[in-house]
Specification:
The complex is a heterodimer of chains A (about 160) and B (about 180). Chain A is mainly α and about 160 residues long. Chain A has 8 helices and no strands. The longest helix of chain A is centred in the N-terminal third of the chain and has 35 residues. Chain B is mainly alpha-helical. Helix content of chain B is about 85%, strand content about 0%. The chains are: A mainly alpha (about 160), B mainly alpha (about 180). At the A-B interface, helix 1, helix 2, helix 5, helix 6 and helix 7 of A face helix 1, helix 2, helix 5, helix 6 and helix 7 of B.
Chain lengths: ~160, ~180
C-alpha cells in the first residue's frame, strides 16, 4: 500500500477519534454526511476512472506532450487553464486527472494551471456567483482567478 | 428563503446531479464497450490503467469525504463570518486566507457566505482571499492533492498560490473600489 494513502487514512482515523471524544452526536452526523457525499460522488468518480483509462489507452503520450507538455510552453498553460475553467468536477477528482496527464507527459505548470483554474474559476457556477455577489464582483473575481492560474502555473514551472 | 427550504433545494439538486452523473456513467460504459469491441487488443491496457486509478481513488476518497463531513459539522459558517466580519487591517487578509481553508463544500456554497461577509463590512480583499483559499487550499482536499500529486508539487503550488493571491486580492480590491464608485 502507498505511504501517502496510509497517512491520509491515518489522519482521517485520528480526526474521527478526536471528533467522537469531543461530541459523539456531531461526529456521527459528520461521518454520515461524508459517507452520503461519497455515494453521491460515486458515479462521477467511476466516469472519471473510465475517461482517464481511455485517455491513457488511446491518446498517445506524444499528443499530450504536444498539447500541454513542456514544449507547448505558454500555449499549453493557457490550454489547461481553459479546460480547467470550463469543466465542472469536484477538485478531489481533478487531482487524479492532473496526475495521469502529468505521468503521460504534461508539464508541471500545465498541471498546476489546470488545478488552479478548475478550483478557482467557475463558468458553470457564474450565475449563482452573480446572484449572490453582484456582476462586477463575480466577473472581476473570475477574470483575476484566470490570470492568477496562469501566473501560479508559471511560478510553479520555474520552481519545479 | 429560510434554511429548511434551502436544504430541501440542495437535496433536490443533489439528486438531480446524481441522476445526471449516473446517465453519463452509463453512456461512458456503453462507449467503452463499443470501443473495446472494435479494438479488442487495447482492452488489456485500458483495464490495467482504469484499475490503477480506481484503486488509488478508493484508497483515499472515503477518508477525505469523511474528513470533509466532520469539518462541515464542526466548523460552522457562522463562526467564520463572525471572525472575519469583525477583523481589520493586514490581519484580516491572512484571516481570510486561513479561514477559507476550514469549511468544506464546493465553491458555490461559499458565495452566500462571502455575500454575508461583505454585508457585515469585511474588507473586499479578505473576502476575495477567503474565496480563493476556499476553492484551492481546503484542508481535506489537500490530502487528495498530497496523494495524487506528491508533497513537492503540493507545497510548491500552495506556496505560489499564497504568494500571488495576496497581491492579486489587493489589486482587485482597488479595481473593484474604482468600478463601484462610478
Amino acid at each position: 500500500m502507498n505511504v501517502t494513502t496510509i497517512i491520509v487514512n491515518g489522519i482521517a482515523v485520528a480526526a474521527i477519534i478526536a471528533a467522537l471524544v469531543k461530541d459523539r452526536k456531531k461526529a456521527a452526523a459528520g461521518i454520515k454526511g461524508g459517507l452520503v457525499s461519497l455515494i453521491f460522488l460515486a458515479p462521477l468518480m467511476l466516469l472519471i476512472v473510465i475517461v482517464i483509462g481511455l485517455i491513457m489507452t488511446f491518446l498517445p503520450p506524444s499528443a499530450i506532450t504536444a498539447a500541454v507538455g513542456d514544449e507547448a510552453g505558454i500555449k499549453g498553460i493557457l490550454t489547461s487553464t481553459a479546460i480547467g475553467a470550463v469543466i465542472h468536477v469536484p477538485a478531489i477528482i481533478g487531482f487524479p486527472i492532473a496526475a495521469s496527464l502529468l505521468s503521460a507527459g504534461a508539464s508541471v505548470s500545465a498541471a498546476a494551471a489546470f488545478i488552479t483554474s478548475l478550483t478557482m474559476v467557475g463558468i458553470v457556477t457564474l450565475p449563482i456567483e452573480i446572484k449572490e455577489l453582484g456582476v462586477r464582483f463575480a466577473v472581476i473575481r473570475n477574470v483575476s482567478a484566470l490570470i492568477l492560474a496562469v501566473c501560479i502555473a508559471l511560478l510553479v514551472g520555474v520552481i519545479l | 428563503m429560510n434554511d429548511n427550504a434551502k436544504q430541501e433545494m440542495m437535496k433536490k439538486k443533489k439528486r438531480r446531479n446524481l441522476l445526471r452523473d449516473s446517465l453519463l456513467l452509463a453512456g461512458g460504459v456503453i462507449a467503452v464497450v463499443i470501443v473495446l469491441l472494435v479494438i479488442p487488443e487495447k482492452s488489456g491496457v485500458f483495464f490495467a490503467e482504469s484499475k490503477q486509478v480506481l484503486l488509488e481513488l478508493a484508497g483515499v476518497l472515503p477518508a477525505v469525504m469523511i474528513l470533509m463531513g466532520l469539518f462541515n459539522v464542526f466548523v460552522s459558517k457562522e463562526t467564520v463570518v463572525k471572525f472575519l466580519g469583525s477583523s481589520a487591517g493586514i490581519k484580516s487578509l491572512f484571516l481570510g486566507l486561513a479561514l477559507g481553508t476550514l469549511p468544506t463544500g464546493p465553491l458555490y456554497i461559499a458565495f452566500p457566505v462571502a455575500a454575508s461577509l461583505r454585508k457585515k463590512g469585511a474588507r473586499t480583499a479578505s473576502v476575495l482571499l477567503f474565496l480563493f483559499s476556499w476553492s484551492c487550499i481546503k484542508l481535506p482536499q489537500e490530502l487528495a492533492e498530497l496523494r495524487f500529486m506528491g508533497y513537492e508539487f503540493m507545497l510548491v503550488r500552495l506556496g505560489a498560490t499564497i504568494a500571488l493571491a495576496v497581491p492579486a486580492a489587493l489589486l482587485m480590491e482597488k479595481i473593484l473600489g474604482k468600478v463601484e464608485k462610478r
